[in-house]
Amino acid sequence: MMDIDRYDVVVMGSGAAGLTAALAAHGHGASVVVLEKAEQLGGTSAWSGGMIWIPNNPLMQRAGISDSRDEALTYLRSLSHDLIPDELALSYVDHGPEMVAWLLANTPVAFAMVDQFPDYHPEFPGGKPQGGRSLECPLMSFKELGTHADRVTVGSNYGTAPVSMAESNLGRAVPVPVSEEEMQRRRLEDMRGCGQSLIGHLLKACLQRDIEIRTQAAATDLLVENGVVTGVLYNFVGAQRQLACENVVLASGGFEWNQDLVRAFLRGPMTHPVSVPTNQGDALLMCMRIGVSLGNMREA
């Protein structure tokens, strides 16, 4: 008979969304486990520039940079071509600042504004040419993670470069010069920026709370009773296992490495995905099997 573990919340995926969801659930009293299909954690978030876009965030407010719910919604609506459901835009704009404030108050996660980094389309209504909405985690020494440092995936995009987005030529027109002496010090301390820092901060917070993150744990199916998801089947250490739970958070990335889904949903071929190869649409396939409707499938 299959052993069944029980948790209040099961999170699929260990990128920024998954680890943040795990922290929030645990911080509000739930028992949590994170399932990550890959050998290492962090997903595409760990390969990325590590910026998050949060309008009207607490750091903007402290710096006296003007922003509002209406401006942010106006900006999103101007870009959406009527493809973003308004209730999702409202939820994002309303709860993004709350998320940042909660992490700052309850975890070791730190954020800084990417100085003068404008919205991608600042000329659109509600856009911010002077920036303020884009945040990143400051440089972090991975020595703080101890033996867990090697658990974070390192990609070819940014690797372990000891620079922040704000210091790079991607974060500003004129990069901030960093002396070779300072760079050497950062390398000796295994300081990392961008997506590595984002995942490093979130992982440190999860470790402090003893949140379990199981790698090489590939979820395969959602269990449903009377129209309600009650558990998850997953493969772990060469065997199929089962988790019973009241809530499942699907944060396992996109589908751009699944050629069947790419052909079915994208408007053209995709030859060079810039995400982790485990982004194969696992959660989407599980949802399709239980009749969940999908949205936002035109992009990858």
Concise summary:
The protein has 300 residues and is α/β, with parallel strands linked by helices. The protein is built from nine helices and eleven strands.
Question: What structural keywords apply?
Answer:
300 residues, 6-stranded mixed sheet, 3-stranded antiparallel sheet, 9 helices
| Strand line-up of the largest beta sheet | 8-2-1-11-10-9
Structural classification: alpha/beta
The number of E-state strands comes to: 11
Please identify the oligomeric state.
single chain
The total count of helices amounts to 9
What series of H and E elements makes up the topology? EHEHEHHHEEEHEHEEEEHH
Strand composition percent: 15-25%
Low-confidence parts lasting 5 or more residues at pLDDT below 50? none
End-to-end Cα distance: 40 Å
Q: What is the global morphology?
A: globular
Biggest sheet architecture: 6 strands, mixed
Q: What is the C-alpha radius of gyration, as a whole number of Å?
A: 20 Å
Helix content: 25-40%
Q: Please, could you describe this protein's structure?
A:
- With 300 residues, the protein is of the alpha/beta class.
- It has helices at residues 16-27, 43-47, 58-63, 69-80, 86-106, 180-188, 194-208, 259-265, 282-289; strands spanning 4-12, 32-36, 52-53, 112-113, 134-136, 140-141, 191-192, 212-215, 217-225, 228-236, 239-250.
- The strands form three sheets. A six-stranded mixed beta sheet has the order 8-2-1-11-10-9. A three-stranded antiparallel beta sheet has the order 3-5-4. It has a two-stranded antiparallel sheet with strand order 6-7.
- The longest helix has 21 residues, at 86-106.
- The radius of gyration is 20 Å and the shape is globular.
